[in-house]
Amino acid sequence: MSGWGCPHFINEKCVLLNSECNPGQKGCVLFGMVTFSNPENPSNEAVKRREEKAQKKDNSQKNSKK
Ligand code: SF4
To answer: How far is the CA of 11 from the centre of ligand 1 (A)?
Structure first.
């Protein structure tokens, strides 16, 4: 089984951010898309905010149909 490989990880660095690869950092393609096991990863909070926003939107659409 092969894992996911980021297309921006080239020559041991992130060419998107021109820095060390730190998955989940702000600007990373995974930011706000993936929850990491490390609770300190900034992506986790972004995922939470995105899900809360989607839930609010869903609730307001349901309420407007009543
Ligand atoms: S920091 Fe994110 S976007 Fe950059 S190489 Fe790593 S996984 Fe890819």
So the answer is: 12
In angstroms, how far is CA 1 from the centroid of its own chain? 23
Number of domains in the chain: 1
Q: What is the pTM of this model?
A: 0.83
Identity of the residue numbered 33: M
Instruction: With respect to residue 42, please indicate whether it lies within any of the assigned structural domains.
Output: yes
CA dist 36 and 63 (Å) reads 33
Is 49 contained in some domain? yes
Pocket of ligand 1 (CB under 6 A): 6, 8-9, 14, 16-17, 21-23, 25, 28-30
pLDDT in tens, 7-62: 999 999 999 999 999 999 999 999 999 999 999 999 999 999 999 999 999 999 88
Query: Does residue 1 belong to any structural domain of this protein?
Result: no
Q: Pick the atom of ligand 1 nearest to 9's CA.
A: 5
